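[Meeting: bench + compute handoff]

Bench side (C.D.) handed over the final construct sequence. Compute side (W.E.) agreed to return the predicted structure before the next meeting so the bench team could plan truncations. Sequence as handed over:
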Amino acid sequence: MSEITLRQLEYFVAVVDAESVTAGSRKVNVSQATVSMSIAQLEKTLGADLLIRQRAKGIAPTRSGREFAARARRVLALTAELEDTTTSEMSGPIKVGCVSSLSPQVVPPLAAHFSAEFPEVDFTYQEGSADELQSALFEGTVDVAIVFSRQRVATVTAVEVANATLKVMLPSTHALRHRSMISFADIAGEPAIFIDLPPSRDRSIEFMRAAGVEPQIRWTSSNLATVVALVANGLGYSLRYSLPGETRSSDHGIIEIPVSDPIPDNGVSAVLPTGIRAPYRVEEVIRYLRQHFE
């Protein structure tokens, strides 16, 4: 049986990511014939078809191909990590997944940190729902995912990087704006404008019902900026988790006040597939976020 080479893994992952042998070969700067021959040899070695070749639609991985691509990405990442240990500088790619509602608080400081402290690191990010990002984690297309702790799935290892406080978002002119805490009963009957990103909306409803209040949902939006603008215009209230050190000024037309009702503990976690050692770049993401949100 022939040995599988790192070059074969690199070519295969490039083709899967590009969904095309032609585009994949350009990505790795070799000829299309070389890439095709390499993947054919890989399939022969494994005794399995990894790609579905469609003349008009390019290529798509088979089920075996998807699973193999995820493992291949991990092998390539570990190889890059071994190479990093021979140099004094941190370098190479890091792709951070972050739930959309946390992205404004997490991505900009992380990007600034790596740009300033580790310019040899190629920092990129992906936004999405917790389910999407944790699927991407197991497919190997993101290196670490930042999600709310209550959103993580059972098959990940989680490191909490920040506490989160549930707050009521109100117009800055609201009659309750001077309160230090607000109960759900205080806003019962007022129109709700919820962030429609799973599972945020369902959790908001769950928490309010547990307090004996049925929310009167007027609108939902997957765009946090839209929710903020609607609340600022006096059209309702919303609920949102706030991170340490984060403030939203009344200059933006809103004010956020902590909820006084009992709420299950929540936080923000960096998650990795269980059993996978975090590369140095991922360890730096976790270290920096914990420090940033202290």
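W.E. noted at the follow-up: The chain has nine helices and twelve strands. C.D. will use this when planning the next construct.
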